[in-house]
Amino acid sequence: MKASSMATTLLSSTLLCAVIVPAQANWTLELAVTNNYLFNGVSQTDKKPAFQPGLNWEAGNGFYAGFWGSNVDFGEGTKVEIDGYLGYYHQFRDFGLDIGLAQYTYHGRGHSSELNFRELYLTLHRNDYELSFWYSNDYFGFGGGHLVVKLARSFTLSPGWTLQAGLDRSHSFDKASYDWEGKAGFFHAELVLSTDLAGFIVSAGLHTTTLKERWGDDALVLSVSRSF
Prior knowledge:
By secondary structure, this protein is mostly beta strands. Helix content is 8%, strand content 58%. The strands form two sheets. It has a twelve-stranded antiparallel β-barrel with strand order 1-4-5-6-7-8-9-10-11-12-13-14. Strands 2-3 form a two-stranded antiparallel ribbon. A hairpin with a 2-residue loop joins strand 6 (80-92) and strand 7 (95-107). The protein is globular, with a radius of gyration of 18 Å.
């Protein structure tokens, strides 16, 4: 499915659900800035700052959809990322299930759209733990299956302060199409401290990967976001 078709499908689904449950629908606008946009531990901005707006819609029955964007810099002319997603969340007693589809699109030069790809995601929540999976059959348009698995836990340090520890593995099922420095995959670990200051979510995170080249350096990521 082309990026434009995916965006049209997401928008159409959002509008259809809005008609069905208008009294329960809820829109949220989020604006964020960060000193470095990391995606599974890999910088998408060549270690430079990013502005990241997002628009999320919740139907009130578990379904949600939205769009998210950021500036990027891959060193070949691509400047903007715009994503759409459609998902469903349900709580089963102590377990939460979040499942959905995301479409990543890239813009800048004429060939930027060749990086577009779709990704299925699934997250299981239980108490302070999260186990997440992301799968694409055409990662960044290079072909071949790609899977990311992440285990994370949140700790409440004191009222208003949260520490999240996470470890994830990115793995390519076809090294001929997409590899990580000649290997099938790599690990990424993070420690992120967050708090709410007068309605602004402020976070500081330490990130490290097993990658050795420019995209995988250790990083301190600072970000501030606000929802409306």
